Protein: Glyoxalase-like domain-containing protein
Amino acid sequence: MTTPPAAFDHLIHWVADLDATTASYDNAGLATYPALTMPGFRNAAWGIDDARYVELATVDDWDAVQTSKYSRGLQVLRPAIDALDGEGPLTFAVNVPDIRATIDRLRDVGHEVIIDEVWFEDRQGGFTEVHVTDVPHVTPFFIAYNPPREVIARMRAEHRAANGVVFDPDRPQLVALLVGSATPEQDAASLASLIGCGVRGTTVDLQDAEIRFDADAPEGLYGITVSRFGDEPTEIAGLSIYPEV
Structure:
């Protein structure tokens, strides 16, 4: 069996008002669903398909977060959250088939990593995140699920089918993440090398959502392009959303 390549998993959109943001997504045709609530932390998601999603996340109480399963991961992200000074796209996750091999590869080239393992006893499932700490926060973190993502996606599809839920074939689809950079070709090449995927000029060829760097855009991760999204760009809670033409 061929090992699947590294692939886009999810984007974290950090928001101040979760309820207002989910309403804005829904009104824009990006249907959301509630995800989970933990001490001090809440999130929801725009489910792109059975594997990929955009996570809408917020912390109501940082002290309470310390008792949640997400405490370590959120503390790793805290500097990037503080740098947002409000809301907007925070970072994104790349699913990898072998998380241990990814850890070894990153360490072998001198990167510093923080490993966060989360397990849910009631679901008999969880995930491992690997955060690279010596690079800009635009850099993604790596994630692997247990059971694997493709198994979870198949289970979700089977659950949908059993309940008569069918995806609209004409629903909006995430196409690309947008990053502003003064040195777009250099940064695209560096990110592709870190992830372990191809690059075309200023575009990183990440499976399931490419990453486009642009010298004429705000510095850092600032937006996404979405197909079947109408004709005009919009902004929701600091995230710029552009129609993919």
